# Entry
Amino acid sequence: MAKPDYIICLECESEVDEFTWRDGEIRRASCDVCGNNDPDAFALPEDFDQDFEDDDLEGEDDDYLDDFDEDEEDEE
Ligand SMILES: [Zn+2]
# Structure
């Protein structure tokens, strides 16, 4: 597994790019925002259920648009 560009602090959900990556795991991490430095309290972006907007998600949101039919509201 390749080292991700950043990881997510589970305490404050910030993106953190100051971390040590080894053997496919987060070995050390430190969140500048909340001071969290427990490697277990960080998640990979792909493991994290992202509720917030992220420019990196280009193209991945196309599928849900198919289920969202705006025309149905004009039924009257
Ligand atoms: Zn944090």
Summary: Residues 9 and 31 are 7 Å apart (CA to CA).
